[in-house]
TrEMBL record:
Taxonomic lineage from the root: Eukaryota, Viridiplantae, Streptophyta, Embryophyta, Tracheophyta
UniProt protein name: Kunitz trypsin inhibitor 5-like
Stored InterPro entries: Kunitz_inhibitor_STI-like_sf, Prot_inh_Kunz-lg
UniProt cross-references to Pfam families, sorted A to Z: Kunitz_legume
Family: Belongs to the protease inhibitor I3 (leguminous Kunitz-type inhibitor) family.
Organism: Coffea arabica
Signal peptide residues on this chain, from the entry's feature table: 1-21
SUPFAM superfamilies per UniProt: STI-like
Superkingdom of origin organism: Eukaryota
Gene this protein is translated from: LOC113739499
Sample GO molecular function, one term: endopeptidase inhibitor activity
Amino acid sequence: MMKASLLFILSFLVFSISVSTNSSFTSAAEAPEPVRDVAGKMLRTDRHYYILPAANVFDKFRGGGLTLSGIGKNTCPAAVFQETSEQKNGIPLAFLPVNPKKGVVRVSTDLNIKFAYPETCGQSPVWSIDNYVYPSGDSFVNIGGVVGNPGPKTLSSWFKIEKFGYQDYKLVYCPAVCSYCRVICKDVGIEYQNGKRRLHLTTDYPLRVVFKKA
């Protein structure tokens, strides 16, 4: 009787350890990989970074970092543009994941993108898509978004960072913060407007980017 009890206890312990080990491996496997800057370091939620165009031998005029500018006759800087000069890094940004784990920014994860900039013209410095309900038309990246509070009311404020090649990345609008919302996923690219490079949603040519610590 004692031997049977001992065997049962040992079997239970082995089973428990096995389950715990397998769970750990499963959790580790399911965690998306961290986004890394040009120095190879993980992006952190408490730091600011420049979003810069990745080096591309096919693009002779790749421009600089990202900034804010007015649209048309409206001089209020509420739209997101790319600097035309490679010498300008633009405005630093912060990345705020929907579920921050240990302060690390990861690929394929819903996050808010926020300029390290005060409120401009009554708009928050958080990125937002202006036409996310009908993205088959022109949809541009502006500010005025909301940090956190995931759900249908903040659907326009969620972006993702995805791998694009070996060391480069792309920005994607494909929020998963609302399970019942209809979303058309698109990449963030560049559209030329009056000689300026404005960020918009595209299915053709995503902006290939890297991140540099500010």
